[in-house]
Amino acid sequence: MEALRVWRASSNLLGFAASRAAAAAASAGRAHRFHIRCCSPAAAATTKPPQDRRRRSASSSSTSDRDSIRAIRLKKVEELRGMGYEPYAYKWDRTHTTKELQERYTHLEDGEVCTEAAVSIAGRIVARRAFGKLVFMTIRDDSGTIQLYCEKESLTEEQFEQLKAFIDVGDILGASGSIKKTEKGELSVYVNFFEILTKSLLPLPDKYHGLTDVDKRYRQRYIDMIANPEVADVFRTRSKVVSEIRKTMESFGFIEVETPVLQGAAGGAEARPFITHHNSLQRDLYLRIATELHLKRMLVGGLEKVYEIGRIFRNEGISTRHNPEFTTIEMYEAYSDYESMMNLAEEIVIRCAMATTGKLKIDYQGTEISLERPWRRETMHRLVEEATGVDFNSFGDVESAKNAAKGLLGFKTESSENTSLQACSSVGHVLNEVFETVVESTLVQPTFVLDYPVEISPLAKPHRRYAGLTERFELFVCGREIGNAFSELTDPIDQRNRFENQIKQHNAKRAAMDKKVKSDESKGDDEYSYEVSLDEDFLTSLEYGMPPASGMGLGIDRLVMLLTNSASIRDVIAFPVLKLQQ
Fold first, then answer.
1. φ, ψ dihedrals at 216, nearest 5°
2. Which of 107, 219, 438, 542 gets the highest tally of CB atoms within 10 A of its CB?
3. What keyword terms does UniProt attach to this protein (predicted)?
């Protein structure tokens, strides 16, 4: 039978064939003497693979083997269609998931068959082994795995030959039958009918090496999820986090709204935007760098509690903490201040932790993080003074602050950090540089950092008690910023002046960078090379009157990192942005 010869060739390429003598005997017609190895735990425990097969497995994913396997499987697709079978099905009616079966029939005794049970399942074949008239396969669906017990006597002759000749690890299969627990205690579907639902053309990563190439895991997440099932749990947790956030917001009376991704001016944060062009309008547009300014317009329009969960796009660096597109929730509440947002931040994070982990003390990369209230609340000035012994309130001019910072930070004159420090136009900017360099990484337990300088907080309301500061906080956990919130600025004249000052400061930094690049005759850093412009429509909306309000943005990706013990933001984004392959 041609299909049987094709199957043997595929098995040899994968390193699953038996010895040469057994293969020769099989080719003479003794087809039921096949002994096919697979990646099931049971098979691995009973027989140790020869070293030469280990070496073949290590190279099985090479381009030549991969192409050969693909060619063989394409031949199987042709033969199946020639026999009247469509290897890419429309649907399959399932009665249970694998998890439901495992839970429902766990009481069966070893060797017991539940003949009255009629079940139907579907999933991907991740392991198989054959012993003459008996074939075992492990099938995996979204909920877990279960064994398929395929006996020649329970299938038609045609189906059993098809089972041996055409099914490969990686195929998606539908199977129906009764329930059996084997003598060794393995709960199984006792198969009396099956159907190939999707024929896999490419081999899965081999069982001994798996998918360990980190870059490939991110580029081909679908393979990562097949080879490492626990990866899917991260995205299940992410879904729970987003769902719990929505439940929390709705319980406090907030409504969800949607604002534009394409904007005429990139506002709401200081970040390099992505620029695109609208052909019909013949104008450049920006992918949003924040949802803030449009959400505030909703407050002007009369909605008092609004939020948006959405993608943000910033044309900046890539690291374990940063991805050019990321997800945030921004929320705004009329007639409240930043104290209200601190309480809401605690509530959101605590509810998400309980929904996903069931506890408030969690492990993150070997450190225990306590999310139990109360969380520490301390001013930026105080934290910097604790870490350095320097009170930046004592400096009357920016140059004195810069000199003190150089001594604290140990910057070399020619370093890029020193260039950034030199570009600081106020004591507040210098204070922020020292905070980010010295203090941020030490804030391991949840900490609200309060009362930022007005120079670096153009959208925050002036502090009601301390001149030069704003009513703003940032939430840090594990040395990472999780959230940012203000008592919102509602004075349209003050807001315009701050925007204009922000543009001047940006342009000054841009000029300093340009000067350094020219003097060094190098490419330099393009951090400030983009232009910043006023959002006149937003300023106009403020002149119609926005009620007193507070607002906050929380980074959902970083929150998921915390709750899933993920070291990199790429682990919690299904398809992160990556460098081009060389």
1. -65, -35
2. 542
3. Aminoacyl-tRNA synthetase, ATP-binding, Ligase, Metal-binding, Nucleotide-binding, Protein biosynthesis
Q: What is the pLDDT of residues 137-179, one digit of tens each?
A: 999 999 999 999 999 999 999 999 999 999 999 999 999 999 9
Q: Is 29 helix (H, G, I), strand (E, B) or coil?
A: coil
Kindly state the average pLDDT of the residues 260-264. 94
At 58 the three-state DSSP class reads helix
| CA 443 vs CA 435, 479, 501: distances in Å | 11, 5, 30
For residues 18 and 14, give the distance between their C-alpha atoms in angstroms, rounded to a whole number. Answer: 11
Q: Residue 124's closest CA among 226, 42, 201, 208?
A: 226
Q: Which residue has the tokens 């679908």?
A: 222
What is the distance between the alpha carbons of residues 374 and 371, in angstroms, rounded to a whole number? 8
Query: Which residues on neighbouring strands pair with residue 332, listed in sequence order?
Result: 306, 551
Burial label for 251, CB within 10 Å (0-12, 13-18, 19+), is exposed
C-beta separation of 30 from 48 below 8 A: no
Residue 507 corresponds to which tokens in the numbers above?
């342009």
Give the alpha-carbon dihedral of 143, 571, 362, 447, to 10 degrees: -140
3-state secondary structure of 40: coil
- Token reading at 361: 């003390």
Cα–Cα distance for residue pair 417/437, rounded to 1 Å: 10
Residue positions counted in the chain: 582
Higher pLDDT, 160 or 38: 160
**The amino acid at 2:** E
**How confident is the model over 301-327, as pLDDT tens digits?**
999 999 999 999 999 888 888 999 999
What the block records as the tokens of 474 is: 């940032």
| Residue listed under structure tokens 């002036």 | 462
Type of residue numbered 145: T
Give the pLDDT score at 413.
46
Structure tokens at 271: 């970040």
